[in-house]
Amino acid sequence: MVSRPLQRLREPQHDETASPADIWDQLLTPLEAADHASVPDRVATVLRNAISAGQVLPGTKLPEVKITDRLGVSRHTLRSAFQLLAADGLVERRPNRGVFVHEPTEEDIREIYRIRRILETGAVRAAVFSSEAIEELRGITARAERSRAAEDIAAMAQANQEFHQCIVAQARSSMLDELMSKVLARMRLVFAGMRSYPDFHSGYVTGNVQLAELLAQQKRQEAEDHLINYLLEAEQDLLRHLTL
Questions:
Q1: Which of 44, 60, 125, 202 would disulfide-bridge 84, Cβ 3.0–4.6 Å?
Q2: What is the pLDDT of residue 134?
Q3: Nearest-CA neighbor of 207 among 228, 180, 192?
Q4: Cα-atom radius of gyration of the chain, to the nearest Å?
Q5: Cβ distance 156 to 148 under 8 Å?
Q6: CATH numeric code, 23-101
Q7: What is the CATH number of domain 106-242?
Q8: What are the residue ranges spanned by the domains of the chain?
């Protein structure tokens, strides 16, 4: 079966051929000595954090010379780190051009939300939500509501991701936690395209509040139904906005 080519969401809104000269000076500092992790893993973590935090946008070229100079590592080490990031779907190598932060496609969004529906509804259905977990969820939603009142889009997006990470964390599985972290890192790439739509995250703050209260009342089936509808709506909303 021949796969249908993926459709690009939009053309990049910035120069994709080079990064701003000073951004890497601001983001990166030389690695300190450490015994507990390989150097490529540590380099990948530094770059993953910058990408996940939205400090390096989709379509941005990752300049090998600048990054190796700033981190004090070899090109071989950096390329090994790039391979790790590519396996996570965060970067892509373009022939004769270099390595770029991945630009999400429609199929990326559909796949991300397929995975989220499985992970999050599974946690809602089977995990134990202790009183401490409920208080943590309520604390996150309270912070999100304050961020909404302050019109702080970045803080709303961060709280939203923390809320859903917390849902999956109640399954008490390090493997599921790791998978969810990778999924949310890819979500950050998608959210970077929503900077022109400041109201996008606002409605989902209310949805998270409602979900937390359903879980507090042990209404598992209602919580699961609410979450499924929530995620389907979010997926459709993203596709509608990002393909305009």
A1: 44
A2: 97
A3: 228
A4: 19
A5: yes
A6: 1.10.10.10
A7: 1.20.120.530
A8: 23-101, 106-242
